[in-house]
Amino acid sequence: MNNQRPFRFGIVGESIRTADDLTTTARLAEELGYATLTLRDHFVTEPFGDQPAPLIALAAAAGVTTTLGLGTLVLANDYRHPVMLAKEASTLDHLSGGRFELGIGAGWLREEYEQAGMPFDAAGVRVDRLEESLQILRSLLGGEKTSFSGEHYQVRDLTVFPAPTRPTPILVGAGSRRMLGLAGRYADTVGILPRALPNGTISDEMSERMPDTIARKTDWVREAASGRDVELSMLVSPVFGADPRKVAARQAVLRGWGTAAADLVLDMPSQFVGPAEHIAEQMVARRERFGFSYYLVGDAAMRDFAPVVKLLAGR
Predict the structure, then answer these.
(1) Cross-referenced NCBIfam families, in alphabetical order (predicted)?
(2) I want to staple 38 with a disulfide (CB 3.0 to 4.6 A). Which of 53, 71, 135, 149 is the partner?
(3) Does the pLDDT at position 2 exceed 80?
(4) For residue 255, what are the domain limits?
């Protein structure tokens, strides 16, 4: 992986509830220099609030923008058959003029599965299914006639229409060693996450956010990528203020760790605090250290974070 990939930045549309929200957010993201607008894939309110159907909403966003990339962060594999997803992804890529990026994961939110009456299989089964799906998606979205026979999917002599004009970029969100290895083998971009837990939640352990853990995760991706140039991504929550240490101390208190943990906050790869110039310096240093070049922030932070985008995008 190239630790000097140019920076790019994305928005996660977490507060989009209406058509006006969507078009306003998409146009503003493009105006402010963000590379992508991404949407989550949930049909229950918690934990991120109500969400529009991502692929349909992104098609609408494509119609009111010209250069903004459009992505999913991330689709749950179990909610769609990979053949149908490939068709929808290729269609959206055509409608947007080649601006769609397909983000996908194994699915993790037990409560959502249960409310929808879907079986929440063991993690190993869900990851097995995702791996098969990724093989099918890469083949179909690469324009190949595809046959596949696996435990979960069987495909015979299929191509996708509209025919892809380029291989659709794929992002895989991953936190465990197995998922990170799978992402390294199949993804163009790997979104580094905390581990999904067997009980259907995401780990909130402090150790998941520490530099040694993040370094280990990026090493697992590199090992699996075997020389492929894979982009590394992370969703971050910047907090702005004139004095980074004071901001970090406040964040430590809010997390219940006490002011003595300010140094831990300052060193977290997913946490950026201080003025825009300081945050930009941190990002350059962490690109060198870990390889991250694609950062995403929630849409509530898009205006405040725009000066960082201006300082770093494309550099």
Answers:
(1) F420_MSMEG_2516
(2) 71
(3) no
(4) 241-271
**Number of domain units in the chain:** 2
Mean pLDDT of all residues in 19-39: 98
CATH number of the CATH domain containing 80: 3.20.20.30
Q: Same domain, yes or no, for 283 and 267?
A: no
Task: Find the mean pLDDT for residues 103-119.
Answer: 96
8 strand-pairing partners: 294
User: For 172-203, b where at least 16 C-beta lie within 10 A, e where not — what string?
Assistant: bbbbbebbbbbbbbbbbbbbbbbbbbeebeee
Let me know if residue 2 belongs to a domain.
Answer: no
* Residue 259 pLDDT level (bands cut at 50, 70, 90): confident
Q: Are 166 and 127 found together in one domain?
A: yes
Q: Which of 245, 239, 224 is nearest to 300 (CA)?
A: 239
